[in-house]
Amino acid sequence: MDDTFTVRTTEQLPQLLKAFRKNAGLTQADVALRLGVTQQTVSALERNAEAVSAERLMRLLNILGVEWVLRTRSASPSEPPAPGDGAHW
Question: Residue 73: which residues within 8 A CB-CB, separation 6 or more?
Fold first, then answer.
């Protein structure tokens, strides 16, 4: 898969993670084995991806053959800022 997906909210992650897993031809059990967790944990991770640690998310993306690319977004007047833009870390 050579597609690019723009993710601006954590709510987008569950559907994308499931799609990437299926595209990789992996079951939840396959991913669980590689992550060293149970299938139930992978299922919960796919349903509630916003609660996953960055470390576990990176490991999962690696297993799925997905790169995490960060880039600066150019602001356009017609596009409202994403929730959290301008928030302090």
Answer: none
